[in-house]
Amino acid sequence: MHYTAADTWINDPNGLVYADGVYHLFFQNNPYGTDHSNMSWGHAVSPDLVHWRDRPVAILCDANEQIFSGSAVVDHGNTSGLGEPGTAPLVAVYTSHHTDKSPTPGIEAQSLAYSLDGGETWRKYAGNPVLDRGSAEFRDPKVFRYSAPSGAYWVMVAVEAVERKVVLYRSDNLIEWTYLSEFTSTAPVGRIWECPDLFPLPVDGDPGNTKWVLIVNVTYEEGRGGTAGLFFVGDFDGVAFTALGGRGSTGRQPEWELLDYGRDFYATVSFNDVPDGRRVLVGWMSNWDYARILPTSPWRGAMALPREASLHTVDGRIVLRQRVVAGLEPGGASRSVGRTDIPAGTHPLGLAWGSGPCLIEATFDGGTSAEFGILLRQGGAEATRIGYDAERACLVVDRRASASTDLGPSFPSRETAPVELDGGSLELQIYLDASSVEVFAQGGRVTVTDLIFPDASSTGVALYSEGGAAQLTGLTLTPLEDTPVERAAESLRAEDGRAFSRSRASA
Ligand code: FRU
Q: What's phi and psi for 495, nearest 5 deg?
């Protein structure tokens, strides 16, 4: 159900673009192993964001550079001149992370690669890099087409990571870039900023009322939980982004909010060019605090389920909602549980379905309970607790007893996400897979994405309530089809590994 490589490492989604009926997912990939090195762009395609097919590695690292994160556009007007008559190039804008062997060791600058065959094969642009600030922390360009009244141009948002700044540039041809502006938060958040994105969305579905969402992925200070994504809501006038909230603003809009309150939703960016103005986000389902030691095999690293984002007015401010894209298929008959009282205590439900993927949709009435909800993957002392803390008015996802392996201090966590009950009622959608849980509360108003590593035998489901009684209004568990990724004919890893060793040795 979740995209992973066959037998290699992946991190950030890159180059998300829809072109000619195909969703392209590129991603940070080590084609030769399961550690974070040899960064290259892997590639998979999908007609529907559910069924994925692996393609050959798109842009391979070499002796001079690792291919760090970035984006891709379809250059319809051949503004770059990299196309051919009748063929608009697909242009990737990526960060050249220069190695010690390069003439500019340590420098991060932005470069281009292009494809004339729908993303199958790629050539690096001969004039790389196209944008160099002489910085060692300038990375993760997201490029999109901006339509101004005076004409359209390309906009790039990237980061100066340790300065916690988003920097904006414009270009007419993707090759020459001019500085526009920079953005930072009024109260510093995080230690490092990475992987920004900027896109418009109608508020309440009204095309006459558009706001812009700026996503920034942040690494926190040591011991603060690792990595997470956040977003600012505001305006973009073709030059600068201004947040609605923050210091100096008088309204009810917070300056920023977490995109997801879990520990495993990072480097999240959105697709360019999805039809009908839909905004689809993909996050890497991991956290730099423990990404390198995750106990999965033979692959390491997975993408969260693609989500569609929308903006809504609630209580005089704008909120973001997320929901998993349509199209996941049931993998068996649904099971339902009707209205059930939950007295204080833990009450097993006879709903074991193994450890395969499933969707659990449940509605609760909080009653007199201080905390109520559901325990999943329960067995012995193990359980993943998903509930609602009525006193603090927040969704709770507690994975402190969700893994038998030691994954360091950031892993055993209890997440809380502020969200109100609706007339006393909590509505949850929980996408559960073998080693992850993605929780959407109150129609996606808040979400929590966490990895879990329970024992395969821990398959119990139970309801719980503390300090009073709650009620389950109803629950449906639908097993989901595990939609395996269609792998490339032969393993790219071994083949290319030999070629790579040769080119490295000769460099
Ligand atoms: C985010 C990140 C990016 C960088 C890439 C390297 O996870 O650190 O800033 O481009 O990963 O793999």
A: -50, -60
The atom number, within ligand 1, closest to the CA of 95 reads 10
Q: Which of 7, 12, 455, 496 is catalytic?
A: 12
Residue located nearest, by CA, to atom 8 of ligand 1: 194
Q: State yes or no: is 455 an active-site residue.
A: no
Does 2 map to a domain?
no
Nearest to 436 by CA among 381, 362, 359: 359
Total domain count, the chain: 2
Domain range enclosing 116: 9-324
- Does the model's pTM come out above 0.90? yes
Name beta bridge partners: 67. 96
CA 475 to centroid of ligand 1, rounded, Å: 39
Residue 419 phi/psi, 5-degree rounding, is -160, 140
Task: Report helix, strand or coil for 175.
Answer: coil
Q: What is the Cα 74 distance to its own chain's centre?
A: 22
Task: For 18-35, write each residue's pLDDT tens digit.
Answer: 999 999 999 999 999 999
Q: Are residues 115 and 40 in the same domain?
A: yes
Show the ligand 1 pocket: residues with CB < 6 angstroms. Answer: 11-12, 28, 39, 68-69, 95, 139-140, 194-195, 267
